[in-house]
């Protein structure tokens, strides 16, 4: 199940908006404002509609560059908050209730399908695909959030946390998400496996 870049070059503003309070809690307004400046922004983006993916990518990359030891935890906190936002504002409550009542494999498949249909909100100009359903695995080819970065390990902690929050809340609390390949390490795609613990 592949999804074309419907929002090519655009990404959901929560890629930044949910990171800002995490940054402020970590280092005050000074850190938050420094990361906004690194993203080329003078103020937070609007929460209405989509935004250009470049500032979001620049902020995540600046976080990893400037706070390498703290970046995974901070990106994870922002990803969990993004998942919470999606649950509160983007997935209708009746759909959430239905997913929680369905058998786990069916709920996981339906949630994966919904994520694929809305992948442009977090994959931007990258190409999102559901690779398999057993085990459940996603990939983002040419992931804009890590585009141009080089690392010796997977660095998509924000994406992992978003997926984890959605699956543990809507499908089963024992789900875990692990990035098994990352564009930043030279892989052709960032690959995320969603499995039961």
TrEMBL record:
<dbReference type="GO" id="GO:0030494">
    <property type="term" value="P:bacteriochlorophyll biosynthetic process"/>
</dbReference>
<protein>
    <submittedName>
        <fullName>Bacteriochlorophyll 4-vinyl reductase</fullName>
    </submittedName>
</protein>
<dbReference type="GO" id="GO:0015979">
    <property type="term" value="P:photosynthesis"/>
</dbReference>
<dbReference type="InterPro" id="IPR004096">
    <property type="entry name" value="V4R"/>
</dbReference>
<dbReference type="Pfam" id="PF02830">
    <property type="entry name" value="V4R"/>
</dbReference>
<dbReference type="InterPro" id="IPR024096">
    <property type="entry name" value="NO_sig/Golgi_transp_ligand-bd"/>
</dbReference>
<dbReference type="InterPro" id="IPR010249">
    <property type="entry name" value="BchJ"/>
</dbReference>
<feature type="domain" description="4-vinyl reductase 4VR">
    <location>
        <begin position="135"/>
        <end position="196"/>
    </location>
</feature>
